Amino acid sequence: MDNKDDRRLILLITDHLDWAEEYEHLLQLQNKINAYIDFLESEQYKDTYPEIQFATYCIEIHFRYEITLNCIKFLDTINKQLSINNILIEVIVL
Question: Is residue 55 within 8 Å of 4, Cβ to Cβ?
């Protein structure tokens, strides 16, 4: 990374669960996302990267199974709220 404006910290969530229990699945996903938000807001990443000033932050979620409409709506809502703090959620379905 040569340009400070391009520095982005990527945090990864791997989701291997199917959607048989959608409500429980969404709760677990919310808990994982909240843990990363707490990690970013408390700047714990500075323990590992003390010299780097990140411009943006990304929570990248890799899903094993196709996501549901409710999951899409949930992630869209969160993305709108997090964008204010330069945090983005990216979704990858394997």
Answer: yes
